[in-house]
Design brief:
about 200 residues, alpha+beta, three-stranded mixed beta sheet, two-stranded antiparallel ribbon, 4 helices, about 25% helix, globular
Length: about 200
């Protein structure tokens, strides 16, 4: 519970910084553009646009703070930089979204240091309390084919943009390392034999 509170606290800190930056831009405060660009670059990892209207548009969107654990070989996705439409952003990428036949992509995937344990704090409203239109921030091209089994038979499934790897593609994203103890996956029945699942 402690780490969930810390993720939420970090979310509230960043949301407060964004709100102050947007207020400064709206008032035309001296240095507001420079401060907002710094926030985009240094906190959100985004190349800031040149003009203040574009900076405000890039700041004023849903925000997620994602807890990440050290990669120990668990199946699933992790944090990566993704280039989409000429814009570089932080995304959670699944293995089935990677072209493992491309040596460059495979090398990037294999060198991943962290894993996504699906621990996310999210801000869904703007500074005036209005809910964001979340459909505006979906990457509709983030579909992929996943290999699964049903009744012991292999099958392929076309997956639409998932919550972390497509539906939140246009969100502002911050990754935070959390201890591995916060993550207790159950992907197979054998995972129930792990110490963290024993009473």
């Amino acid at each position: 519970m402690r780490w969930k509170k810390l993720l939420l606290g970090r979310l509230l800190e960043i949301r407060s910084e964004i709100d102050r930056a947007l207020d400064g831009l709206e008032r035309g405060a001296t240095g507001a553009g420079v401060d907002a660009q710094r926030l985009l670059r240094d906190v959100l990892g985004v190349d800031p646009p040149a003009d203040n209207a574009a900076v405000a548009g890039r700041l004023d969107r849903p925000l997620r703070v994602c807890g990440m654990v050290r990669n120990t070989g668990e199946p699933g996705g992790g944090p990566f930089w993704v280039s989409r439409g000429g814009e570089l952003s932080r995304q959670i990428v699944e293995g089935s979204q990677v072209d493992h036949g491309d040596p460059a992509q495979e090398a990037i995937w294999a060198s991943a240091t962290h894993f996504n344990p699906v621990d996310i704090a999210a801000a869904l409203r703007d500074r005036r309390g209005r809910p964001y239109d979340l459909a505006r921030y979906v990457d509709r091209d983030a579909v992929f084919i996943a290999e699964k089994t049903h009744g012991g038979e292999p099958l392929r499934a076309l997956e639409l943009p998932g919550l972390w790897n497509g539906a939140m593609a246009g969100w502002n994203t911050v990754f935070v390392e959390v201890p591995a103890a916060t993550f207790a996956p159950v992907k197979t029945v054998f995972d129930l034999l792990r110490p963290e699942h024993r009473a």
